[in-house]
Amino acid sequence: EVGWHVLLGRRKHGFGEGKFDGFGGKVKVGERIKECALRELQEECGLEGTLHRCAEVVVLFDSKKRTRQHIFVLDRVVGEPRESDEMVPLWFQAAAVPYDRMQPDLQEWLPHVFEQ
């Protein structure tokens, strides 16, 4: 279908269990951020793609703990998403994103991705 689609993963265990989240993880020593994004996408749902653009988001938890997240949009995806040990992947149209079943930080910044 025409328009934005987003692939989210429902976390199977650990922090945010049962909630939808994006795919990603920690950058390995010597790895570039884009390389990490593509590696994590492949590891967590079996997809490959071409990164289109990136934004950096700084998230504050209780005004103390701060994390820096890099958000990538893909303009080409290769393969079909598959379930991994960590996530169950599901595609959503932009209008049907389950914001009420996501982590608060994702609820905050994801709508802005669709405005671009």
Describe the structure.
Helix content is 20%, strand content 38%. By secondary structure, the chain is α+β, with helices and mostly antiparallel strands. A hairpin with a 3-residue loop joins β3 and β4. The two termini are 18 Å apart. The relative contact order is 0.26.
Task: Produce a short descriptive summary.
The protein has 116 residues and is α+β, with helices and mostly antiparallel strands. It has 2 helices and 5 strands; from the N terminus they run E-E-H-E-E-E-H.
Strand content: 35-45%
Number of helices: 2
End-to-end span in angstroms? Answer: 18 Å
How many distinct beta strands? 5
Cα Rg: 14 Å
Question: Shape from CA axes?
Answer: globular
* Oligomeric description of these chains: single chain
Mean pLDDT: 85
Q: Strand order within the widest sheet? A: 2-1-5
Query: What share of residues is helical?
Result: 10-25%
Q: Structural class of the secondary structure composition?
A: alpha+beta
Observed structural traits:
116 residues; alpha+beta; three-stranded antiparallel beta sheet; two-stranded antiparallel ribbon; 2 helices; 20% helix
Topology at a glance:
Elements: E1 5-11, E2 20-21, H1 33-45, E3 48-61, E4 65-78, E5 87-93, H2 104-113
Antiparallel strand pairs: 1-2, 1-5, 3-4
